[in-house]
Amino acid sequence: MHTLLRGGRVVDPGSGFDGLADVLLNDDHVEAVGPGLDAPGATEVDVSGLVVGPGFVDVHSHVHSIAGQRLQAMDGVTTALDLEAGLMPIERAYAEAAAAGRPLHYGFSASWGAARAQVLAGIAPDAQIDSGLAVLGNPQWQRSSSKQELAGWLSLLEAELAKGALGIGVLMGYAPATEPGEFIAVAHLAAKAGVPTYTHVRELVEVDPAIPVDGSVEIAAAAGETGAAMHHCHVNSTSGHHIDRVLVTLDTARREGSRVTVEAYPYGAGSTAVGAAFIDPDRLRLKGLKPSSVVILETGERVRDEGRLRQLRREDPGAPCLLEFLDEADPRDRGLLHQALAFPDAVVASDAMPVSWPDGRSESTEWPLPPGGATHPRTAGTYAKTLRLMVREAEEWSWLEAFRRCSYLPSRLLDDVAPAARRKGHLGVGADADLVVLDPDRVTDAATYADPTRPSVGVRHLYVAGVPVVSEGKLDTGALPGKPLRGEPR
C-alpha cells in the first residue's frame, strides 16, 4: 500500500534536509522523498502548511498499556521504550505487549533492579511485573551484594541480553548506598556485550555528602574506565539546582572520549513510588525539599508532614506520587529546566508513567480516556511542550534541531544493540515509515498536574509502520500496528 504525503515542509535530521517536498511510503518503509513525486494509485494526503518528520523515539517510557500509548501517540511518539527500569523476564514483557497489541513500537532493557530483587530479596521476576511500582520501596534489594550475589544477578542480566534486551536499565537512585564496585561491574558487562546502560543515577554529593560516590561523577567515571556507552536518565530531575555542575562533569567526560549521553524532560516534578529511597524524609531535607513537595497521585493528597509521609511509605510503598523538585512558576527554576534541554546533544525523553483509575484499572480501550485517570502530565505532553518551549517560544531550536533531539539522536543510542533501530529517526530511503505531521503554529501540550490525561494538540497525522494511527488530528482506535524492537542476542 502506497501513501503519498504531498506538499509539506519535510524535516529529515538524518540528511539535514529541511524544505518543501513529498514523502512516499510503501507499506512499512519510506520509498522516496522529493518534490513533485508521482505515485499513481497511492493514497494521497495533503500536508501543505504542516511539518513532516520522523516520529519521536522515546527511550524512557514506563507506559505498558494501550491507553498510555495512545496519549503518547497524540504527542507525536511512534516508538516507546522502557530502558531506564526495564522489565524482567524480558520474554514475558514482549509476549504480553504483542498479545494485547500496541499503537506504538515497544521494547525493554534488562532490569538491574529486578535481577537484584530476585537474588537479594527472593522476589520472582513475574511477581515484580505483577506488583508494578511496589517493589521499588522494598528495602531488601537495596543493600550491597556479596561476591556470590553479584555474580548471580550479573548472570541474570547476561541471560536477558541473550534474549534480546535493549541494554541494561539501572535504577541506582533507588539503592543509593550500594557498593560502587557493583556499578563498575555492570558497566564492564555492558562493554563486553556491546550494549548501552541507562541509569537513574544516585544522589549528588551536594545533596548527600555521605553518599558513596557522586551520581554524575560515577556514571562519567564508569564510562571512562570501561568504555561502555552510558546514558544518564532525566538529568533535570536528578540534578535539580546543581545542574550547572553536573553538565560540566558530563561535558568534560564526553570531551575526554567517554561515551556518555544525556536526556531531559520539561517538567519540574517527577513521579515514582512513595517508598522510593530518595523520598525518605531525611533525604528530602538534604535536597532542600519538604514532605509537602510530595503529592499522592491517586488521591491528590499533598503530604502534610514527616509523620504522614512515613506512614504512607510504610503502608503502601508502591503508591504512585509526584515529587516537586523545581518550581516551574519561578523564572530561575524554569531556566534550569531550559538549561537541561538545551545541553548539546541532550535527547528528549518523557519518563512517561502508567495511567490508573480510582477503581484500580490500569488499562482502558475507551477513547477519549475515561475521566479520573491518574498519571504524570509528561505521559501526554512531553514532546509537544518541548516543541512549544524550545522551538516556538524560546526560538532556540530550529525544526531540524528539534527532530534531531526527539527522533534522530534517541535512535542512535540503539544502533549497536539493535540494528533495526538504524531505520528509525530519519527519512532516508528504506527508513521505517514512522512519521509525525505537525501543525507548527498550534502544537502544544494540554495535560496539567490537575488534569494529566488531556492529549496534546497539533499532531495532525501519525504513521507507525505506515499505518495511520492519527489522521486529521483524530486517533484511530482500531490501529495497533506497534512492533517489537529487540536487541540482537548477545
Automatic annotation (TrEMBL):
GO cellular component terms attached to this protein's record: cytosol
InterPro entries hit by this protein: Amidohydro_3 (IPR013108), Metal-dep_hydrolase_composite (IPR011059), Metal_Hydrolase (IPR032466), Metallo-dep_Hydrolases_sf (IPR050378)
Entry GO MF terms: hydrolase activity, acting on carbon-nitrogen (but not peptide) bonds, in cyclic amides
Domain Amidohydrolase residues, every copy: 44-470
Gene3D superfamilies the record matches: Metal-dependent hydrolases, Urease, subunit C, domain 1
Chain spans, region Disordered: 357-379
Cleavable signal peptide: none
One family name in Pfam for this protein: Amidohydro_3
Domain of life: Bacteria
Protein name: Amidohydrolase family protein
Species this protein is from: Amycolatopsis mongoliensis
